[in-house]
Predict the 3D structure of the following.
Amino acid sequence: MQVIETLADGLKRELKVVIPAKDMEARLNERLADAKDRVRINGFRPGKVPVSHLKKVYGKSMMADLVNEIIRDKPSAILSERGEKSATQPEIAMTEDQAEAEKILDAQADFEFTLSYEIIPAIELKDVSGIKVTREVVEIADKEIDEQILKIAESARTYETKKGKAAEGDRVTMDYLGKVDGEAFEGGKDEDAELVIGSNRFIPGFEDQLVGVKAGDEKVITVTFPADYPAAHLAGKEATFDITVKDVAAPAELKIDDELATKLGLESVDRLREVVRGQIESQYGSVTRQKVKRQILDQLDEMYKFDTPQRLVDAEFENIWRQINTDLQQAGKTFADEDTTEEEAREEYRKLAERRVRLGLVLSEIGEKAGVQVSDEEMQRSLFEQLRQFPGQEKQILDYFRKTPGASASLRAPLFEEKVVDHLLSEVTVTDKTVSKEELLADDEAEEGQSEGKKAAPKKKAAAKAEVAEGDDAAPKKKAPAKKKAADDGAE
């Protein structure tokens, strides 16, 4: 077998592989000899079929199998011998001429094919001890724990039917039918819907008009959907809702005590406080982690500058671009609405794709050199988490991961990346800084946009408060697409 390099341009490589016809014939003859004792052909005793006859009957199909095995196995072996890693699956090309293919299958012509691929560049790891990050930490006050407990307790709050008019905080049970231009719209109808006045779950202005209603009342409410409402066919439209009030109930008083804890499935109020504190710490810790990770990735991005395999960049860009366009479509927006053009957006997201790929390669190299491993148990936990997110679809998801080549990599990649970040945190300089929750959660998109070159990213919109009925088409929960955090731009 001959391997001839025909292209070496930057990271691009192309190899011509030639296997002489006599070698192909020798391999075929070995297979025919091995099959001789196993093949059963009418008119011949077992093991007595002449190889020449066997070749006449099965030669071409066996040679085709041999060609397929070479195409499947040889590329990785060739790259290994060359000490190269391909960024993506190498592209393989061979003759499409039927006559030439027949000669190869008859062992009358050399078998030739080409391998085209991009190599993963050699990365010389740099000292990271000079990286400095600030870890923002929030001290959780008892007041915040109490506030969170009260929010949680709303799920356990009881209501008692009352006589008289509905007031702020009361729960109204009603039937309603929404109309635009006198025509009912999809998702705008519900029966026995429960709404707590002041919860801000419905369209702005809707709940205010329920103040003063009482059981048995019928009323027409007029509201206007927000201009940035996620459902484009309703955005900015005036709508009416025919309301029939069935019940008005007043809320029972909420107290933070052992009785409340018991209603929530815990043994005591002290245990409830402990659980809630842990939840808040976890939420803040997640934000802290992302900010620290972003600082590390930004500094690694400055430290490492090298050409990236364009096929990887292309694939990453397509993933980003597909998501951006999906988000815009769901929000009923265009690039013009986001103060940019498609060309400018493509350029900016291309840069983002290149950053992700470059940092991915850097983190991969760091993790490999540090011996970072993702255990089977960690993979199992990640898979179970996927299953929990899609109840009712467990079988389809399991089948996907079992049958799709490379699917498990989508589970492993984020786990590996986080473990590499953990490793880096043990080597960089980390300074803790106590901040308020407002400072921790402050929106720093403007700074991100400058550092990431993401001016093309769609602007973040406030959450829609127009959920006429949660989950209905009239009130989708999706927001306009938001800028992606630099922490998420890393290497997954």
